[in-house]
Amino acid sequence: MSAVAAPPAAAIAHPRRWPVYEPAALERASALLAGGRAFDYDHGQELASFERAFADRHRRRHALALTSGTAGLLAAYFALGIEPGDEVVVSDFTFFSTATPLFLLGAVPVLCDAGCANGTVTAREVEACVGPRTAAIAVTHLWGHPCDMDPIRALAARRGLAVIEDCSHAHGSLYRGRPAGSLGDVAVFSVGGLKLISGGMGGVLLTDDDDLYARACLLANFRHRTDLTIPPGAYDDFLATGLGGNFRMTPVAAVLAQSHLDALDDLVARRAANVGALVDGLTALPGIGAVGVDDGCSMGAWYDGVVEVDESCRWTRDELAELLQRAGTKLRAPSTEPLHRYPIFRGAAPEWSGLAARAVRAAARANCGRAFPRADRLSDRWLRLPVNYLWDAEGSIVEPYVSAAAELL
């Protein structure tokens, strides 16, 4: 059905878009700038405090702050010794940066279809993708919903594979009482952009393994930081130079992210209440269904909460989204699409880089003939909630959004 009966444009008053910072955090950041401390080549109080708090929150031995979650994933793959020609099983339904750093190492992402109605992978789908060249499994806790990690860890142990958690959506998420980020050999969070913990730009790598931490730190840093945080021993020859990267988080980003980390429980509770109220209101309408949360799991930050537009709806998902936007809402299709839809995962190789081009072509061959029916179906039916406007204590947009949808349905 064509969306022809569009209502007139309406104004819905939205709160400021996240990230929002309390005055104390802004004052602390301003003081750093006024003092000429926009960068940190050492391991100053701001970075050390943020890393320690982040590690403690996630029950990990080491935390390494970086410029982005993407840099953290590259450091994780590098630290694990992923080499040219190695394969890594990666969720098909994830942001592309879960997989694209592998091309820089000459490695091959093998895409795994979603195994659940919430879009996450399961051990069964992952095992079907494991082959003789598989070196690791990278899982994404999509929108904040933890993957079922115990069976995935058991599979990895049985096959001798490393497990990387992409926790970029999963701030505050829990799996059977354990925080997302505590469940893999290494975990990576984004703490930039619109994430519930945001320093503007930033990422954090977590691990309990001393060697993995040291190798990741050497990729991201050189002298001063490496001298201060890597104990003397096997890596002495590389402490001055590092291993080619410069992915240092700024102290300004650290103090901004720290302010959100300190308030995380309250921020999670506030967003959960608002998202829950909006989901309840929308799913009471015909043609819109909830995306369930598994027993023993919590969604934490609800990064991109979604509802599903099913066959009984009088509109397609895209038609309904267009009408709701004309009615003043910010409901829309998710911006994240399954990876197999992007040209680079279909073989569009960067020929100026032989290493990456070979990896891209190898990935296209490895994924040729694979079907991703569940990821495709979910991607085409989900309606994205405006979670970045659902942080306020009042939940001010819930009632106007439900009313706008009710007028259409």
Tally of helical segments: 14
Order of helices and strands: HHEHEHEHEHEEEEEHHHHEEEHHHEH
Instruction: Supply Rg.
Output: 22 Å
Lateral arrangement of strands in the main beta sheet: 1-9-8-5-4-2-3
* Alpha-beta classification: alpha/beta
Q: Identify the overall geometry.
A: globular
How is the main sheet built? 7 strands, mixed
Main features:
409 residues, alpha/beta, 7-stranded mixed sheet, 3-stranded antiparallel sheet, 14 helices
What does this protein look like?
- With 409 residues, this protein is α/β, with parallel strands linked by helices.
- Helix content is 37%, strand content 13%.
- The strands form three sheets. A seven-stranded mixed β-sheet has the order 1-9-8-5-4-2-3, with helices on both faces.
- Strand 4 (134-140), helix 6 (149-159) and strand 5 (162-166) form a beta-alpha-beta unit.
- Helix 3 crosses helix 7.
- The two termini are 14 Å apart.
Describe, in short, the structure shown.
This protein is α/β, with parallel strands linked by helices and 409 residues long. 37% of the residues lie in helices and 13% in strands.
List the helices and strands and how they pair.
Elements: H1 23-34, H2 45-57, E1 62-66, H3 69-79, E2 87-91, H4 100-104, E3 108-112, H5 123-129, E4 134-140, H6 149-159, E5 162-166, E6 174-175, E7 178-179, E8 186-190, E9 203-207, H7 210-220, H8 225-229, H9 251-262, H10 264-283, E10 288-290, E11 297-298, E12 306-309, H11 317-326, H12 354-367, H13 373-381, E13 382-384, H14 398-408
Parallel strand pairs: 2-3, 2-4, 4-5, 5-8
Antiparallel strand pairs: 1-9, 6-7, 6-11, 8-9, 10-12, 12-13
